[in-house]
Amino acid sequence: MNDQPGPINALRDFYQQGLAEIRAQFEQQHTARTAGRTAIEQRSHLADELVQRLWARFSDHPKLKSGVAIVAIGGYGRQQLFPQSDLDVLFLLDNSLKELEMKDPIRRINQEIWDCGIRASPQTRQLSECDGLIIGNPEFTLSLMDHRFLCGNRKLYDKLAKDALPKLLQRDHRTLIARLVEITLDRHAKYANTLFHLEPNIKDCPGGLRDMHVCGWLTTLYGIAAQAQKQARPQHNNLAEFHQATDFLATVRCFLHYAHDRDDNTLYWQSQDAAASAALALGNIGNRTIDASVWMRSFFRNARTIHRRTMQLLEEAPRVRGSSLYDQLRRRHKRVQYDGFHIQHGRIIFDEPASPRAPDPANDPDTVLYLFEAIATHGCKLSSEAEDRLEPALPILAANLEEGPALWTHFRTILNGPYAGEALRAMHALGILELIVPEFLGIDALVIRDAYHRYTVDEHTFVLIDVLHNLQRPPEPMNSNNRPNTLAEWQRRFGGLLADLPHPELLYLAALMHDTGKGRDTPDHSKESARMAKNLFARMELDPYEAGIVRHLIVNHLVMSSTLRRDIFDMETLRLFVEKVESPEQLRMLALLTYADISAVHPDALTPWKAENLWNLYIGASNYLDRTVDDDRVRSRANSELIQRVTTLAPARAKEIRAYLQGFPQRYLRTRTPEQVFAHFELASGLVKPSPAAKDTEANIAAAVELVLHQATPVSEITLVALDRPRLFATIAGALAAWGMDIVNADAFANGSGIVVDSFSFIDRFRTLELNPSEHKRFLKSLKDALTGAMPVEKLLASRTRGGKRKPPKVSVETQINFNHEVSSHSTILQVVAQDVPGLLRAISLTVADHDCNIEVALIDTEGEMAIDVFYITRAGQKLDSARAGLLRDDLIVAIARNTK
Amino acid sequence: MQKIEAIIQPSKLDAVKEALIEVGIQGITILEARGHGRQKGHTETYRGREYSVDLLPKLKLEIIVTDDMVDAVVNTIATTARSGKIGDGKIFVSRIDTAIRIRNDERGDNAI
Description:
The complex is a heterodimer.
Chain A (H helix, E strand, L loop, with lengths): L4 H25 L5 H23 L4 H6 E5 L1 H4 L9 E7 L5 H17 L4 E7 L11 H7 L3 E5 L1 H37 L18 H20 L10 H22 L8 H9 L14 H25 L8 H7 L4 E2 L3 E4 L2 E4 L14 H14 L2 E2 L1 H17 L4 H12 L3 H11 L1 H5 L20 H14 L17 H12 L4 H10 L11 H16 L3 H12 L3 H5 L7 H11 L2 H16 L8 H20 L13 H7 L6 H8 L4 H5 L3 H13 L10 H7 L1 E6 L4 E9 L4 H11 L2 E10 L4 E10 L3 H4 L3 H14 L4 H9 L14 E5 L7 E8 L4 H11 L2 E11 L2 E10 L6 H19 L1
Parallel strand pairs in A: 2-3, 7-8
Antiparallel strand pairs in A: 1-2, 1-4, 5-6, 6-7, 9-10, 10-12, 11-12, 11-15, 13-14, 14-16, 15-16
Helix pairs in contact in A: 1-2, 2-9, 6-7, 7-8, 8-11, 9-11, 10-11, 13-15, 13-16, 15-20, 16-18, 18-20, 18-25, 20-22, 20-25, 21-22, 24-26, 25-26, 27-30, 32-34, 32-35, 32-36, 36-37
Chain B lengths: L1 E7 L4 H10 L6 E7 L6 E5 L2 E5 L2 E10 L4 H12 L7 E7 L17
Antiparallel strand pairs in B: 1-5, 1-6, 2-5, 3-4
């Protein structure tokens, strides 16, 4: 055996010189997309030559000569040897040889490989050890699939390549596929199932080079499976794009290995700068300088191509785990037909056009939007065939996409779907989201350098929407890292807030748009995002109230986070915060948006400590809003922005408007758009004002009522503008109950001149108004009759209560009645918490009226089956004394109990 | 070498951090904490349910400094975190035997 020091030095010099040449060539050519591929192939050839020369030095060893083959496996077997990759070599032993007796010569070969400066990962196996799948180590079989003969006994290698391995794959391909899918999904989960990290690991992240290998292995294994079943494998298009993407990533990995001088595949910010300044893998771009964020978009575009191909191939695998609705759909073999497409095995497939001249459903915007609604609703996925048909259809879709309310209806359904995040990601990947929301283009794969964030801006947005939808599901006892879920309690509490939102789609829309301003060079991205969203509102023709809520949420999406850095138990902090919040509904949405925004920064960003502080701020602000309504009144002479917003709608009538607003709680102005307030003002102007001299003053007051109905699904609203009178609130509550309307939210405000504006949000349980537009008039007339006394409300209620038994409640709520005489300077605050049943509000308000108490302000809310009603009440203009409060409490308990029965 | 541990109001973090940077402190460990001393908690009623806030949110800062810096750091924290109300927090100072920088095995004051 020749182990003289001289020749090994020569070999090392030969190898090191070869490496230096490869590096120099790469550095000279790294703008070329294929520079990486060339380098890794060259390094493989160089390593081949080295191993073969080393082998020649040991060739006189009798047992090595006859019974051993050296086989390149893994990346080396694929001839993809990156600058800092290990050399994966298999010392394949004939079955007659024992590993122990070969240990010494193999160790010496390995030692010399190391001495030449190569990090080798050698494995020694007998041929018989390679013909079975090791369940605990499927990686070995996978690396064996990329085998390549290097030197030694060729016949022995042929036994592996032509007999043992094919038999293994033939026999165990299903198990191997299942394990490969499992390993891949586990790896993806470690990276939160997204490739859009600010500093991605280009090997292991979804869409990284490891996925490229997975694609290769799965393609081979599916081929074997198809052959076994004598079926043809479907051919995929766009493989050229896939190969270009793998070339791009190979060049990037080479660049990183050279830059880091170790096998570190993370694209750090510094590496991104260096790659951009070198125009790495971008081809000839002349003298242009490339910004790092622009270069990163190229990277993500390529990684997305690999990720998409990987996911398509993973989809073909038999199901390995999970129990989502999607999995159920996958198991369901039955085809579900829609207009233009169908779902089978959980995948969406376009129908073929009925005839060659018939239009392709993939070109029809309505069909395409229904398709994404199906994804958002059921969690099914696009088939690769559907993706392939949608891509070329983009220009036609762009030309034919209609804007306006119809588009908002589609988009709202997508946003409200429990799998909205998945649908939006699929739309974004195909460019369809940008057809509807071009403002989103600016944050496509955008890296904003921030030590706190983990994802690109677009992915952060989708994760945020996922977090919100996940609040609707019961919290998992364990988190994604298999540790106890310490946020479960907070998920339940914030989930309760989400369940009570009448229009959650507005929150989701605000979530989608909240960071779009980051795509522009502007000092305040919140304002810029809101400005950009305005264009979207116009295109979808959102009504001003909805647009106002979304705009407000976007502008203020960081306010709650910044308030958390103040003393949240200090009343002044609460006051300043509440001034920006405007209404309880917006507070709820803002709390949810903040919760999800923090959670979507990275998986550990929302700690129980932060969640608790956020909750405390939320309930502090909510209570502050409820308890200060009575004190915080509009003064018509004040130079308030809220008043000015209304007066600008009719400058000539500014004086009258100011007089109308005088004395209303500020909350009235904050919870309505200027247009709504102005509409109320006009209705109030039309009310017949009785003169004290008139004989029939009471009748005139009774007649002074205007009603406005806004019918919507699921929550409608009726607003009443009237002159104040006894039992007004009780009457309208009773009339609504008589129609079977479930009041979920209400408020009642009065100004200084005795004009009352009461608003009731209600769910039309029997869909009377939705299904019978002709009933709108009768409904309004019935309410007006009740208010004017033409039809006693008791008579209306009697006809309703004949209707049969009530369903027993799912959750029993104990009645709680509390009085607070301190918080408001003018009124006693009565809070009633009780089982939410029809007629409750009527029962409470009637009892309050029976005690000659006046409802100054009412704030009615519902949480699941619990009604939470707050009334600011006075008696003869004063707060209630404790004796009266006690009597009222007793009567309320009786009245609520009677109504519940 | 000494360790300074300070329990402060979360709302004072930004101000304390800036002031410490001004006196030359660069390394601070910040831990989310809850607790109460003389500042008792309170009970908030929301939607008929009582939420007792008996453990109040605090932040704990840990700073290791050379002996000559101790007074400056303690004074900086005390003056910046003070509002004069109960609940402003406390500062504890204790001795540290040594420090080791993991990256390069530097020891003692150089490792801070």
